[in-house]
Please model this.
Amino acid sequence: MGTHFKGTQDQMIALDTYIKLTRASDSIQARLSNAASMQSLTISQFGVLEALMHLGPLSQNELGTKILKSNSNMTTVIDNLEKRNLVKRQRSIVDRRMIEVFLTPTGKDLIEGLFPHHVLAIQEQFSVLTTEEQIALGDLLRKLGRGENEQHKE
Model:
């Protein structure tokens, strides 16, 4: 559909591209949220379990940074995972001020069973692009995410 904003050509292209990026991301997230691999987990809950599976115990702040969620949101996510006996909180033995979040054996079994299926669901979402297109998109998104601008590197 594009944008109805009337600005400079550069502004209109940037806004249109942003809208397409946001819509594509939202569409993919919605489809993945409904995938069987989610097992009634939210995207945030799945992200926490995945981060803990790959990185080991992390503080709530570290988890929030990894999955791009606020501290207040992370408290709710971790509370809900704890109620399901998927994670536990424990005071760090290195720094008693810090609370670390760990996978329970139940949480570990769940995420290790779900993750391969979730990867297949992601692969299916990206199958509309060729391998080369996926690599190019990944490179462009990394550049965009870092805020790199070739014009400013001189």
